[in-house]
């Protein structure tokens, strides 16, 4: 695959190098996924809260795919402190819940589980067990989301948020096998 240097202001999103296929796939998933969630949610984009919420939803979906790319993975592998900051600042699910009047206690529970699990996975960086532990914690997280009986659209957003932070981002997908 042919890679090109990404502009510096996009390094936190796409890393220092990226391919047209990966950028296209990321943007396409964010757009199509946002449209699907918008269709299911039946929320009107007629106020600033709904518009901001859907911008954040698109960001969650884009990050879910972008964090699996070689460029993004390499960027954060070289910057472990930035990886911790990235995990810590992801409060999207709480803000989306607040903006779209979903129960904040449920959003806080999902957020806390995701951040703690992602932190555990991140602490295993460089260990061969990292992917297995991440998959295991992701599966428990899916049980949690199903148990919470969320509206379909919020379940979708929550699931992609969890994938984005816990599995897509916290795992080093391209580490050299030891």
UniProtKB/TrEMBL annotation:
Which keywords fit this entry according to its UniProt record? Membrane, Transmembrane, Transmembrane helix
Q: Which residues form a coiled coil?
A: none
- Report TM segments: 20-38, 50-70, 82-100, 106-124, 131-147, 153-171
Spell out the protein name for this chain: DUF2878 domain-containing protein
Source superkingdom: Bacteria
The protein's organism comes out as Pseudoalteromonas neustonica
Instruction: Note whether Membrane occurs among the keywords.
Output: yes
């Amino acid at each position: 695959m042919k890679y090109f240097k990404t502009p510096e202001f996009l390094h936190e999103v796409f890393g220092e190098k990226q391919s047209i296929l990966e950028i296209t796939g990321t943007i396409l998933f964010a757009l199509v996924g946002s449209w699907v969630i918008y269709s299911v949610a039946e929320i009107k984009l007629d106020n600033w809260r709904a518009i901001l919420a859907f911008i954040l939803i698109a960001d969650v979906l884009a990050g879910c795919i972008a964090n699996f790319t070689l460029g993004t993975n390499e960027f954060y592998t070289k910057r472990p402190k930035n990886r911790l900051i990235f995990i810590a600042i992801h409060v999207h699910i709480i803000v989306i819940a607040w903006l779209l009047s979903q129960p904040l206690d449920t959003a806080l529970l999902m957020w806390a589980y995701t951040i703690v699990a992602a932190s555990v996975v991140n602490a295993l960086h460089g260990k061969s067990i990292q992917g297995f532990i991440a998959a295991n914690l992701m599966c428990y997280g899916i049980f949690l989301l199903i148990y919470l009986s969320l509206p379909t659209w919020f379940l979708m957003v929550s699931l992609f948020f969890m994938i984005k932070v816990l599995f897509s981002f916290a795992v080093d997908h391209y580490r050299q096998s030891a």
